[in-house]
């Protein structure tokens, strides 16, 4: 084991009592301190050896009925004791004042970043090898106390490890397969410990005997456990015993035969989530939770599902948020819920729950105050829940009750969805009232530039406004006085973050009169690989600003407070509704809400944990062996496969559909949800709105990958459900490569939309065969990415969509086109403009780059699919090459609705995700010699192309067939097979007999995507009866199709174009 650095003198922190006890040595040498601790009867010392040079641990210490030797007050978990010092061999240590006549003290070493803790441990004074000494040695990852000095963990037969058992029903528990004999032990108060010397578990209150079981049906429900676990039967547990056990600390203890004697062989915690479903879900799912107002009695009833709690109280608060007399809640044994009736609390009152329960993170019984997971309104920063009547007149804007959706949702294939973020929309817009910038109410200002732009898109065919997270999220401080943004003075930014004052480059601006935006603008002119100061300053500002994408759920059913002009209380509800009202009645779009039920921001005992403080280890999916919360989504994964998590999700969606009139829901990481849960939630939402639409990210990864735990709501599994999933197939084919490419691989992986093979850059690795395959994927995407759509691929095979390869998976997977969301840009990853600049040859002029951008968007706009666009893609939006701008602030995320700038080259992107790409980015800027300098005229050109394509799409129902059978029969591709011309797609849509006539104005439509640098002659079918679409003709020289000619029976199209021809009736 490496020698640890000594603790600095400043870390020698002793309490007054300990300091007096050690007055003769002060901060003496390590050997002197060691000797003193061994002989002083009033001091206990705990060493913690983590083998880290700079350990950052605190100690949680407490007394209980079985162990009460600590002479101080029980510590708070979030404010433990700092180490008293650090020994070079044994690690950091704590000296604690103890009662010399007591038997033990309870303690847990832990840290916060990254999270780590041991289990609850006991220092037993009688176990010390030196009489009178009270010294214990703990090693990271051992969960044991040793009493002999050692620099490495002594060999031990048994220690508490993980949570490697699963209690799935009252009569059945799953244990590791090599188990031969086992029992369950429980303590109501926690604090059980392993006495290896005497071969027993101390501190137990209940023991249940187990026996091997032949049951096997469980393997179908828990396939991920079937290989490593075996079923044991619980022999002597009646319902009362089990109901008591789940409210305490539970261990599975296994035994082995050693020389004819029964000996401890392993000890592990028990996962009980499935047992809770088995015991309570049937009744619990029938009930209504949260604060429910009884209008007849003008009071409220409260119900909280907390089956493992030992006591629950309702804590009312007055209008100044001072706690009032608690109200004891009553446990409903059938459902595991707690109820408080006739409370006298009414609309507008604040409250919290106080839950007393055993928490496995601390290993002890905790009393925690927590907000309501069913909160409908909150105080600032979500510290208190608020009772609200959502039908109250004060929460109902004029026109709300009569409000209906402007767009029919019977055929989702007709949707053109426009994704926006509340701050991106207006935070830096001078035409928006200052008090409304970056807020819900910005959408209500009909004459502002952002709203005027939305109206112009709506008139030309945009149907839905997709709002990135607007539920209550955890990553923006809602207290206005505690945050500062770049449109404020730099002086204020420095006040919020004193590190700026001390910075050699930033500090000089702290006393000046410039805004943060102006300072960033000045630094952007000199930003370079050698001095990437813009991203450094932006990162510093982000610590206290108002910006985050919001994929950090805190409370699922309450509007986010930082987007309201007043975060405290019900104003957020009113302003949210006013936003919805304006979007539907003035802008004339339906509303999509981004929902994130797959994870929460925090779990366990963390400050912003809610669910895990109410029913620990139930609402979150745990590793089946270690018991740690899974984090494959990014954060604390939830477990929608559990019945009460499904109910929470479904009840929440119904609130948004019913009480906020949301028309469609975009599900973040939907593949982490069970298909059954998504379908059940959809059924419930349809009871509110029969036309409600669900779509989401059907990615297949993480601990649930390949249906390992349940049948997922993933791309292939949702065939035939009518639920849409984002298609990475056409996205990657058009953009090139993968979103995860780095450094030169980004540039080397060109796509259909930026010149793969046909216009190679200096690093291009895409050959002709690969380029033709990319075109095949684009063709299939434009035909709705259907599983059963047939065409001739680039190898001259007649293939179905499911037989076309995409990274060793079927490219086609949908039954109908409304199950596919095609896009080439959304909030994730680089914008389309930035992506193309990574890949486009240096010699491409600006006009070519703009046409590439438009042509790429044309593959989505003219396809048989739900159309999805990111706000600003029609304005050549750039994030200055930023890959992941979730917390990059207004500087990188701004959209300029004055249309003077596209935000390109305003500084190198953030180091955390893009530092390895900086050299490539700088080379691109230097090698393109001003070809990326976009003017207002260029932005106007791209906006015109975008609107032209929208108007053409909405001019004919032939672009939105939707039904997979209709698409398969009516759509044909030309220029296919091995002899196809790379970079050229020719698609025809037929409305002639024998097909049912859908478009009385047209017989056929032909779409040509020319993703090449040269003019193309379209002679793959007879074009003599076709003409360019009338909207192309009306725009004349301003059309993306300008230069198109008809010569006899062929058409000629310009380079980098998306052109539509029509054969009119």
TrEMBL record:
One of its GO terms (molecular function) is carbohydrate binding. Residues 474-547 form the Pullulanase Ins domain. InterPro entries: Carb-bd-like_fold (IPR013784), CBM41_pullulanase (IPR005323), GH (IPR017853), Glyco_hydro_13_N (IPR004193), Glyco_hydro_b (IPR013780), Ig-like_fold (IPR013783), Ig_E-set (IPR014756), Pullul_strch (IPR011839). Residues 163-277 form the Pullulanase N2 domain. Residues 1-21 form the signal peptide. It comes from the Bacteria. GO terms for biological process: carbohydrate metabolic process. Residues 900-1063 form the Alpha-1,6-glucosidases pullulanase-type C-terminal domain. Pfam families: CBM_48, Pullul_strch_C, Pullulanase_Ins, Pullulanase_N2. Residues 289-375 form the Glycoside hydrolase family 13 N-terminal domain. Keywords: Glycosidase, Hydrolase, Signal. Belongs to the glycosyl hydrolase 13 family. PANTHER family: GLYCOGEN DEBRANCHING ENZYME. NCBIfam families: pullul_strch. This is Pullulanase. It comes from Vibrio superstes NBRC 103154.
